[in-house]
Fold this protein.
Amino acid sequence: MDALSIFIIVVSVVLAIAFKWFLFSRIQQWMDQDLIRGLSEGNPVKHEYLQQHYSQLRSRKVKRRQLAQILTDLAAEFEQKQ
């Protein structure tokens, strides 16, 4: 194999890994947004409340396993306040 072939293979593999990472992170964001929409039940105030907390949780780097449970608890807490 010559240098050009190796270069093409390396670039292709790096781009494939980068695309997979990008696609995986976008799907996770879509799932989180879908969870927030489902928990808000069409209430725009509740949606904004959950969205703000979601942003805070992401900035604190809360693990995804805990994220859904925390958002569900926050939605229940919001309903009790109302």
Q: What stands out?
A: The CA atoms of residues 35 and 72 lie 9 Å apart. Residues 3-81 form one domain.
